[in-house]
């Protein structure tokens, strides 16, 4: 079976990020720094590394910083070139021009389902990836990236696939949770999705398998998104459209070998900073040393 290549990635980045207020009021959470790059740059590089070189960024009116970061900045580049700072010049130029970028505005922050519908025209009729703009995904050293694990499932099955991660029972009410079965004894990580429940209580959860910020969809998902009931002030859930997709066309979950950091909450943001710093050959020893000798907010030396 020949399945169309996934070249397009939709990156929803239009949310208010209320959990990070007031830090996220003027600076989008997707632009929060993690070491020397904003979160969004990790997401863009993840898409590019997986061969997705048409990026559709869903942003809101107040999130122009995202666009400015991804576009060329002639004044800055001239400044750096004139001072011979070619290494920094390379870093700021790197991301702009690496992909075809399109920006769409989500006028009201009505949730993820609405954000994807805003990208409908820009996506066209091709299958596409969805990469939440506030999630950094890290796979163990030497392992394929989380997104390429999903892409392999899509290429094998020709059907939609969503990343899954097992979470603690007390945490299921924060996620979309999957009801499904492993079908292939040779690959127990591959789950055929029967149903999905958005943020269930622990006693109503069909499993502990939570949706994990990355998806690959056929363009037909837009039909199901469009058909979701709309009522003012009530968010339509992407998971409800995915249930329709599962019943009518098939949907796979993949219990991937990757870790997702949700930058939208402070503990995860701190974990992400720490883990990436500790894994960095230059920064790692310095951070380890500082942590060992930190006396918190006690008197300084
Ligand atoms: P979240 O679920 O974290 O929602 O979004 P949020 O509104 O940004 O943050 P909180 O819950 O208020 O703290 C996951 C991703 O989807 C995007 C966000 O920008 C983020 O990258 N998103 C969310 C949109 O693009 N539009 C929306 O209406 C909501």
- The amount of beta strand, in percent, is 15-25%
Top-tier CATH class = Alpha Beta
Helix percent reads 25-40%
- Please identify which CATH superfamily we are dealing with: Spore Coat Polysaccharide Biosynthesis Protein SpsA, Chain A
Number of helices: 11
Largest sheet: 9 strands, mixed
* Rg for CA atoms: 20 Å
* Major sheet strand order: 5-4-1-6-11-8-12-10-9
Uncertain stretches: none
- How does CATH name the architecture? Alpha-Beta Complex
Q: What is the straight-line distance between the termini?
A: 67 Å
The CATH topology is Spore Coat Polysaccharide Biosynthesis Protein SpsA, Chain A
Element order: H for helix, E for strand: EEEHEHHHEHHEEHEEEEHHEEHH
Task: Identify every distinct bound molecule in the structure, by name, code or SMILES.
Answer: uridine 5'-triphosphate
Count of strand segments: 13
Brief sketch in words of this structure:
The protein is α/β, with parallel strands linked by helices and 301 residues long. It has 11 helices and 13 strands. The strands form 3 sheets. It has a 9-stranded mixed beta sheet with strand order 5-4-1-6-11-8-12-10-9, with helices on both faces. It has a two-stranded antiparallel ribbon with strand order 2-3. Strands 7-13 form a two-stranded antiparallel ribbon.
